[in-house]
Amino acid sequence: MARFATPGVYIKEKNAFGYSVVQTPTAIPCFIGYTDKASRGRDSLLNKPTRVTSMKEYVNLFGGAPKTTFTVKAKGDNDYELKVDKNTQYNTYNSIRLFYANGGGTCYVISVGDYNSPVNPKDLNNPETGGGLTALLTEQEPSMVVVPDATLLDKGSCYGLYQEVLRHCGADTKSRFAILDVFDGHKERTFDENDIVNQFRMGVGNNFLAFGAGYYPNLITTVYNSYDFTYKNVSNVADFCKILIREAEVRFLDGASLTKPSAPPKPEGAPTEEDKKKPTPPPAPAATAGLDERMVKKFESVRDEIEKMKDPKADTVVVDQNLRALSPIYRSALDKMKDELNVMSPSGAIAGVYALVDNNIGVHKAPANVSVSAVVGPCIGITGEAQEDLNLPISGKAVNAIRGFMGKGTLIWGARTLDGNSQDWRYINVRRTMIMIEQSVKYAVENYVFEPNTQQTWIKVKATIDNFLTNLWRDGALVGPSPSSAFNVSLGLGVTMTPVDILDGIMRVSVKVAISRPAEFIEITFEQKMQEAGSNEGLV
Question: In degrees to the nearest 10, what's the CA dihedral of 47, 53, 54, 56?
Fold first, then answer.
């Protein structure tokens, strides 16, 4: 109390209202993976959780898409095999594109390396150096964890990382939710010991399952188009040239191969720059005998254009445009590159849907029966019968299906956590709503730490929590005809505390809430009834 010594008027202000509870954010994922770069000016962002609010900001800080390359192998005269070079494939950039395409807003990014780094589980989570997932322990705002590059690891490392992510969410922080992709999610199920979904269930373990959800299958997206690729995406250009030249021989010369005249033996050693600049010698007269001269000239023109792919100084844009016009196999190869890379793991898109639902309705709404944007459809069709094992397995480790519906598009058709046998934590929205309530109340009640553990403080704490939960009840997050039936807050001596608790400096608060659950199964019963006579029926 102030000491009055000098005569006069003293003004004392008294707070009329207590502290309010601020709802913690629920729609902020953290993406952990490899990026093109990681810098803000001269400052490195490697293994530093960085807040990003738009795709433009992401590109400024972390760069663009990876330059994935392919190996082309001939299969006969007019066929070939295209195989992606795994060491050039990274998923984080495209996952963030899908996140923003599906309604995402703010997110965090932890870059663990650039596109010259091989995908390594120690980069994605390294407790020894504090990198990857471990670096996220220093941040409070992220509420979801996504590791898109995990599926590029070998299967054992992928599922080992998933267990660490679940432990991070359910034990280290208890405030986050993991969105997991099924390893090899582009493959059909076999329902045997090699079944990809059953292996996913075994791989994620049995701990902290309520803090994560799995999704299957992968998505056919519209992220890439064929003009995103050129011959520069082919790692073995020389072999690709041979395939295109052979195609041209079949088209213009009916399959005849124009042999080149024998050249004098070259001196030993690598060819000089002058040798490389020399034009290809014309075919021998014997090779062109009996062929249409006009077709031979067309072939030679196409062949010369194809040979330009080997020239590092050639204008890539011009050569690419010319080859698109001249070679069907070239166009087909670029289309196959597009189709190959457009099949993506769904976690980035799912995180965007979570954000969309949270922002438009609330975290209490199940993120299901919602259309996924920027996709053509799931890469594997799932029927209602096939989904039964995904949704209700004996182990309870539900995997949420992504299905295509006629006239509706591609929908998320599942809302279960990996702890499907738990009636407490079966549904994603229940787990995430409880995380939000717990964290929001926790941060609000921190204001009362070291306050007198008396009835006056208890009343303030109870009123603070009551007001917050009443607002949630009005929003539909809590269920009941009245606030008193939707939640209950208890604290006080003889109610939640003993005299020993007060002596030990402990204030115990008990909060009970009735969280809304989704109507996962809707049963409508129809029954016929007998005809009843009306007031004018039966009259003569």
Answer: -60
Tens of pLDDT, residue by residue over 366-393, are 999 999 999 999 999 999 999 999 999 9
Percent of the residues in the chain that have a pLDDT greater than 90, as a whole number: 81
Distant-in-sequence contacts of 76-85, Cβ < 8 A, 24+ apart: 77/246, 77/247, 77/250, 77/255, 78/247, 78/250, 78/329, 80/243, 80/329, 80/333, 82/333, 82/336, 82/337, 82/340, 84/340, 84/341, 85/235
Query: Which pair of structure tokens corresponds to residue 173?
Result: 């922080």
How far CA 416 is from CA of 95, 427, 475, in Å, comes to 22, 4, 22
Name the average pLDDT for the chain: 91
- Dihedral angle over CA of 280, 281, 285, 286, nearest 10: -70
For residue 260, which of 238, 243, 278 has the smallest C-alpha distance? 278
Residue 25 backbone phi and psi in degrees, to 5 = -65, 145
What confidence tier does 273 reach under pLDDT thresholds 50, 70, 90?
A: low
What the block records as the tokens of 157 is 């490392």
As a whole number, mean pLDDT of residues 88-94 equals 96
pLDDT surpasses 70 at 535: no
What would the mean pLDDT of 16-33 be, rounded to a whole number? 90
Contact of 183 with 203, CB cutoff 8 Å: yes
- Give the C-alpha distances (Å, rounded to integers) separating 80 from 108, 230, 253, 256, 339: 41, 17, 20, 19, 15
Domains of the chain: 29-64+87-222+343-428 (3.40.50.11780), 226-263+273-340 (no CATH), 451-530 (no CATH)
What amino acid is encoded at 250 in this protein? V
DSSP 202-220: HHT-SSSGGGEEEEES-EE
Confidence (pLDDT) at 327:
92
Pairing type for strands 212-216 and 399-405 reads parallel
Separation of alpha carbons 239 and 514, rounded Å: 65
Distance (Å, rounded) from C-alpha 114 to C-alpha 133? 16
pLDDT tens digits, residue range 457-472? 999 999 999 999 999 9
- pTM equals 0.89
Going from the C-alpha of 218 to that of each of 82, 89, 194, the distances in angstroms are: 20, 16, 18
Residue 160 tokens read as 């080992």
CA distance readout (Å), 472 to 21, 190, 510: 11, 44, 17
- Say whether pLDDT at 481 is over 60: yes
pLDDT confidence of residue 279: 55
The pLDDT of residue 539 is 58
Instruction: Name residues whose C-beta falls within 8 Å of residue 6's C-beta, 6 or more positions apart in sequence.
Output: none
CA 253 to chain centre: 49
Residue 211 is encoded by which pair of tokens?
A: 């803090």
